[in-house]
Design goal:
The chain is of the alpha+beta class. The chain has helices at about 15-45, 55-85, 110-115, 115-120, 165-190, 200-205, 280-295, 300-310, 315-325, and strands spanning about 5, 10-15, 95-100, 130-135, 135-140, 145-150, 220, 235-240, 245-250, 260, 265-270, 275, 335. Keywords: Membrane, Transmembrane, Transmembrane helix.
Length: about 325
Amino acid sequence: THVTPTAEGKPVTATAAMSSHKKAKKSKSAQEILAAIAVGIIAFCAPNEESGVVMRIISALLSLAALFFASLGLELVQEYRMSKKVEKKNPFEIKMTRVELPTKPPGGVHEAAADMAKHLQGFNVTLTSEIKQTETGFQVTEGNNRLRAKVANGTAIGWEQGGAAWEEQRDAWMSAVWAAPRVQSVLGTDWMGMATEVAEAEVALAPAEDDGPLTTSTVVRIGGLASKPELNGKIGTVTKGVNEAGRYGVRIEGSKDALSVHRRNLSALPPLDTLGVSIPLIRSFRATFADLTTKLTVDQAVKGVLRPLTGRAHLSLARSLHSRSKADEAGKPFAAP
């Protein structure tokens, strides 16, 4: 690239000089055309030698007016062309969005996923979005758009940034983001009417929150442990009643020894549901959600598809269908003992 010094001493590349020359040439061509038009009008309107002074003055004024309007028209045309020019976008430019999120997903993973557009300030998450961890939260990439989410620190021990409980909630947020586009797709299908309002029968069957004492042999789920977060989500059985410290003896599935767990970290599970679903129901489910369940693990399918269907009632799929008296074309119920 050749460089030419300017009067101010600043170098100008040959490319820039050529671009400037082209613009000047284009502007000069327009001026030449305008001048030619004006000369033609003047020549056409010019009076002969025998015309009086008044006619000559009138002819000159008309020529000046023609020149003025032609110049004005040329400026308007140039402004119109400039307004139509669209600035070329850089195809590799990354648009960054930053959001701050509360420590825990409001309402849990399912509820946060259903309301994810609000949490992420309208950032569009799709089935192909890339989600990865960061030191302060997580990052979502969708095409040329990128979102950095900062998960707030908790005040409890272990809930500070990088703590075990904080990381558990960060992972819950990431699960909610991953499930969000699937939740929206599931709710949009309204399969079997499951995405609409909860039926009255489901409300009556929904398990109530119970913080009361637990009896032995009660099946429980462990959650909220900061000292041993790897136990959160595990299922166990109460083997020993509450002691003076409010702790129960709980034996986790697959373990021989019982653990001492506080009541606040135990959630009683309802009795085992004996209802099952029919083959026609499985066929209908597979046909409706094949695109959403392909290559998913069981846990992912539960979070991304089943929970959106049954999350409002907190019942199993079979129990929800049974409470709604859903049946196939032959009149046989989709769910039965």
